[in-house]
Amino acid sequence: MPDIDKAAGAITTEVVESFRDTDDPRLRELLGGLVQHLHRYIREYRPTLEEWERAVEFLTAVGQKCDDTRQEFILLSDVLGVSMMVETVNEQGGGTESTVLGPFHVVESPARNSGDSIDLMGGGTPCVVSVRVASADGSPLAGASVDVWQCTEEGFYDVQQPDVQPLGNGRGLFRTDGEGRLWFRTVVPSHYPIPTDGPVGALLEATKRHPYRPAHIHFIVEAEKHRPLTTHIFVANSQYIDSDAVFAVKESLVVDFPTVDDQETAGQYRVTSPFRMAEFDIVVEPETEEAAR
Amino acid sequence: MPDIDKAAGAITTEVVESFRDTDDPRLRELLGGLVQHLHRYIREYRPTLEEWERAVEFLTAVGQKCDDTRQEFILLSDVLGVSMMVETVNEQGGGTESTVLGPFHVVESPARNSGDSIDLMGGGTPCVVSVRVASADGSPLAGASVDVWQCTEEGFYDVQQPDVQPLGNGRGLFRTDGEGRLWFRTVVPSHYPIPTDGPVGALLEATKRHPYRPAHIHFIVEAEKHRPLTTHIFVANSQYIDSDAVFAVKESLVVDFPTVDDQETAGQYRVTSPFRMAEFDIVVEPETEEAAR
Question: How far apart are CA A252 and CA A269, in angstroms?
Answer without folding.
Answer: 26
